[in-house]
Amino acid sequence: MAWSSKTSENATEVPSQTFIVDIEQKAVDEAHVQNTTVQSYSWKGVTVTVKDRQTKQPKAILSGVDGSVKAGEICALMGPSGCGKTTLLNVLAHRDTFGAKIEGTTLVNGTDLSLEAFRKLSSYVEQDDALIGSLTVRETMNFAARLAHTELGKRERTMRIDGLLDSFGLRKQENNLIGTAIRKGISGGQRRRVSVASQLITGPKLLFLDEPTSGLDSAASWEVISLIKAVAKRNNLIVVASIHQPSTSTFQLFDKLLLLSAGKSHYFGSTASVGAHYDALGHPMPLHMNPAEFVLELLNVDFAPQQEIAQQQLELLQVAWEASPQKQIVDAEITAIAAAPQQDTRLGQKRSRANFFAVTLALVHRSFIKSYRDVVAYGIRLAMYTGLAIMMGTVWLRLSNDQSDIQPFINAIFFGSAFMSFMAVAYVPSFLEDRLTFIKERANGLYGAAAFMVANFIIGLPYLFLISVVFSSIAYWLSGFHPTGEAFLRWIMWLFLDLVAAESLVVFVSSIFPIFVVSLALTAFANGLWMSVGGFLVPPTILNAFWKYAFHYIDYQTYIFQGMMVNEFTGRTYSCGNSCHCMYQSDLASQCMIPGEVVLDQYGYSTGRTGLWVGILLGIVLGYRLLGWVVLAIRK
Q1: Contacts of 318 (CB under 8 A, 6+ apart)
Q2: How much is the pTM?
Q3: Where does the sequence pass through the membrane (predicted)?
Q4: Domain that includes residue 70, residue range
Q5: What is the pLDDT of residue 9?
Q6: Is the domain of 500 the same as that of 453?
């Protein structure tokens, strides 16, 4: 296709007998994982160029890279750091290369497939595990199956999961948590196995792995690669993996090897023949030396004491490869594949997809499990808001109906609403984590931005309502707000809408700027702006026209503050004290009383507009969510 645009584990943990376990357990349709459609995957002349930041001239990251892998083979992409192997893997997997210019062709069975068709056949395992630490191993596999583009009954899904757990030696860990930063889970090698197995459950024919042994010791690395190879052989899959410096035993597990240095090919062929190739070039491999270590030292010139001589030698090695018989064999093989494409109608078939409702339900279910197990999501926020309620209730403790307490009441209303929304910035890290999972799963074609955004909105509602009830139950009665059940329930409603709007703002900002510090700062800035123009610090009657018409009316805190003010002062009267000197003049001044409606008049607030304000707030929430969806949908 042409484009333009750490834990170690014991190696003896998994007995070799697990290799003979069927993924599908015979009772299940083997076509789900068994590859019967893709016989080969080849690439020709893959070249990637970017604009150099200093010279502003095109700079080649990859130059004319060729290769071909057949069904049942596992191919390693190797080379020194910065050689372009990760870029090549992303190109081969049809992943985003961030504006780089890509040239060359990639052929499945000799056929140039569309991006959509290719995504249906392939899957990509990131170097950083896209796993949710608060889920168990079995739950991770189960949700991967539910989110996949396939329709499986519960029984069939369970049997496939059981088969994969057995094949990857994870049966004993099936009910263990993956693990989070504050809660220990399975080992690093087991995490990598879960990552691969959770992709295989979706039934890919081509599997791409980015540094599958990163962070593992040699024993764990061998276990991971040996299990992947066994699965690939048994199911006739094509596996391409970038790998840094494997041990000798791990290196020998690969069928084919593509060596890169400075973005150019230096070898492509069987791992067993790489020693003979360099021996013929006058660089014999020392006896008992790790072949991977040998070739990497030979091709790495970054630390050579004589750079000019090392560069010349590297260029000679590359020229020698281009002129070698092995290179001619590779070229002939790719040419033959392209000349006689195998037209399999199943390659273009539309894979059955889980419908939008099923995907959203699975995401809500998964998020619910994550939210109640992971205290970072809502547990810490609930504790934080509870502490805030106690502080607020004891600072504004037992306010009375005296006119001297009118301003403290107003201050408490502002503080309760503004600080509740301001502290929603605590949701930023949790959303960014969920967004990262979404980005990785969307890249593998599991679901889109709409399902993610709807599920994210739904799962937050019960927790935000719980926070509103807990906060109000403490702060409302301690402070002495309007002492009626109806007023209390309306207060909860306004606080709940406040939190929903604030969290929606976090989602919108974090979708645009998915960097923790930036999202935190911009969300805090936005909330500071809303506080300034919301109507408390400067009443709407005297607010500067620019700020009033540009921001006041789209500020959700405006309507929260108005609603809480009306809720508090409507129907209440306040005493002018023994001196009968009333701070607010009204018809009740002769009775040494102040009606609450007079306080509302000072701010220009009218009663009877609760429905309108609620409608506007819901519109603001919907607007934030829609904008967040647009950002996620556009940013592929």
Answers
A1: 261, 264, 265, 266
A2: 0.84
A3: 375-397, 409-428, 449-479, 491-509, 516-538, 612-634
A4: 11-341
A5: 39
A6: yes
